[in-house]
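Run log, item B.
One chain of 227 residues. Sequence copied directly from the ordering sheet:
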Amino acid sequence: MFTLSTTFTESDQAQALRLSRAYYVDLINKYVKPHGPTSSLCIAQVETEVQAYLDDARTGCYQVRAGAVFARDEATGEVIGFATYLGGKTPPTDCGLNYVVVDKRHRRQGIMKAMLGVIMEKFTFIGLSCNVDKVPYYEALGFRVTGSDMMQVGMSWGVDKPHGVMNVLGFDNSEPIQTAIAAFKRNSGGRAEAILAELGRVQEQKISEVEAYVRKRQSGLSHADAI
């Protein structure tokens, strides 16, 4: 059993960050392999972004209208999942879902559905981007494929309209990410540029694959037939 809450403490946030590190492959907005050469960079990206948006959801420090839903184990109080979202600039009835994760020990219990249900009660439109393999999960919750978003599939729920503009933060020049980049280059030696070039090639390939998948879905094919 689990409980849901839209308020959380610093201790809850620390537990959520541990989940974000453990499941960074599911959360990052690009294609990566677990324990690959750029894992440290990917973890730094996910952790930095989750930290910032949870900070705003808890304190309003960045004023980007971030919000969060936490799932806790009813018996232990342990954080076993969380979802973060960003309010739209216009209209305020829109939101963008940016991070959703459930501890693998507690999956298939309806936790993701319940967390998103809380968000659905607040907004009339929700946009998100997800990996191709996650599309069926969101379709089961009423989301529809709307397009491609780089390496991910764009989806929306609620009012049938284009995605609105979300209040987002920029992280490229943040200290944690710059520190992670410096450490990656130092540890990779002369291979750093080649590794990043190969990563870029893989991303371009995935962009093409996602675009092809979306075209097939929009032509009427099912997920199984489009992959």
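Observations after the first pass:
- The domain at 2-226 is CATH 3.40.630.30 (Aminopeptidase).
- The two ends are 35 Å apart (CA to CA).
Flagged for discussion on Thursday.
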